[in-house]
Write a structure and sequence with these properties.
The protein has eleven helices and 17 strands. It has about 375 residues and is α/β, with parallel strands linked by helices.
Length: about 375
Amino acid sequence: MTTSARAAVVETRDGPFTFREIEIEDPRPDEVLVRMVATGICATDAHVRAQRMATPLPVVLGHEGAGVVERVGAAVTTVEPGDHVVLSYHSCGRCRPCASSHPAYCDDVWAANFAGARLDGSNGLHVAQGTEPHGHFFGQSSFATYALAHRRNTVKVPRDLPLEVMAPLACGVQTGAGAVLKSLAVPPGASFAVFGVGAVGLASVMAARVTGATTIIAVDVDASRLALARDLGATHTVNPAEVRDLTGALRAVEARGLEYVLDTSGRPENLDAGVGALAPLGRFGFVAFHEGGGASVDAGRLTLGQSLQGIIQGDAVSSLLINDLARLYRAGRFPIDRLLSFYDFLDIDTAFDDAGSGRATKAVLRFAAPRQPPRPTDTP
């Protein structure tokens, strides 16, 4: 048995999305078929589309899916048909990182999320004619009207919250918030700065406010995003285009240096500036530096106990963090809806263009009739 779906397929490097009719296999015992309601667009989707990350083409991308469970495999007990779910990153569930509650650092992270196939190498997406597109991107391939996910990356969420707002929690927002709440574990009263206030950086700003950090510095060259960061909890903003010495500008806010710094931009110069601004024992976390990108630091600058930490997915156990963030959203303490711009699924090319140009902080595709999500209430 198969399910017919319509998918947006990347056929060629940097090419437009092509809408194709596909057939999706019935769920295996550990799989879940989800009718998509919304899916976020993440920079990783754009990187793969441009083949800066080597997922094979053609492929159905999408890894911030949200929808309603249609069918479940015989071994699935965590969700059932009709449940509202968010689809996050995939992992093997067996290796040492997975067994120690660090599935974002799974030994098979590349195969589970970027290979375009199940972990056993098979593909559950088929077409009647033409080249079969690869699927299972991040264990979901959510740029389609239905997605075949795994029980490990399918997260049940409350029915009273809009799925089009919950979708970005799956990756980008989880990464920014988790970097603060789990990876760096920023405590109350701490000083914190973030380089880059796109969706990931703004999520970190909101999380830092939730933790009770008393100094929260947003660093970006976009004045409108700095203004939004102020509204969402930043106590200070710095525009690198307006200062000669970025490290000096940060130390002008905290003379002894910053206890925690997060880079979401991937710009090598921010590593230099951020390390220069660290206090003794300060920690610098990063989510976007890539091998060969030229980001390096003299180890002698870390002699006062400072440290560097690479971060994937905010080191989140998605089933826990996504629901923590959902509850904070409901309580009005994590207003993710202020980051979002909504597009019809058929307008996916426009959504990617707007996300790439910065016109949209976080683009979200909707599969149902367009509607504006309600604002969160003040009570859980």
